[in-house]
Amino acid sequence: MDAISEILDALGVPSVSEMNINESYTITVDGFEDLVIERIAEDRLSVGQFYQQRGDIMSDPEVVFVVDDGEWRPVRYTQHPLAHQHDEAGIDLDGFLSTWDRNLRNQGFVAAAHKRDADD
């Protein structure tokens, strides 16, 4: 996910290993669900867009990656209420991740991260 790496870099995070566990970043772009990037465990990074429905937090989508030596392997995919996949060996999401990566860039999330960094 090149867009996520670029967003983290724009926010001054050179790599996932530099983040603390439970450290998160939220990027907001008008008209879209917020993008949340959170290190959820020693080797896990959650990337998701979320909304609230009847008091519940819904993923649209959320992908959890195992991050090892700079490689990101998707192991969990959730998109409420339609889909949930989990496989520690990895999930083949190449097509989806490529589209999502392009959409995040086109929707302005990368630019918003650069602007946020420049404003700080």
If you had to describe this structure to a student in words, what would you say it looks like?
- The structure is a single chain.
- With 120 residues, the chain is α+β, with helices and mostly antiparallel strands.
- The chain has one domain (2-114).
- 28% of the residues lie in helices and 39% in strands.
- The protein contains three helices and six strands; from the N terminus they run αββββββαα.
- The chain has helices at 2-10, 94-106, 109-119, and strands spanning 24-27, 35-41, 44-53, 56-68, 71-79, 83-86.
- A six-stranded antiparallel beta sheet has the order 1-2-3-4-5-6.
- A hairpin with a 3-residue loop joins strand 5 and strand 6 (83-86).
- Helix 1 (2-10) packs parallel to helix 3.
- The longest helix has 13 residues, at 94-106.
- The model has no long low-confidence stretch (mean pLDDT 93).
Compute the number of strand runs.
Answer: 6
Percent in helix: 25-40%
Estimate what percentage of residues fall within beta strands: 35-45%
The helix tally amounts to 3
User: What is Rg?
Assistant: 14 Å
Main sheet: which strands, in order across? 1-2-3-4-5-6
Largest sheet: 6 strands, antiparallel
The outline comes out as: globular
Structural class: alpha+beta
Taking all residues together, what is the mean pLDDT?
A: 93
Low-confidence stretches: none
How far apart are the termini?
25 Å
How many structurally independent domains? 1
Please trace the helix and strand order, writing H or E for each element.
Answer: HEEEEEEHH
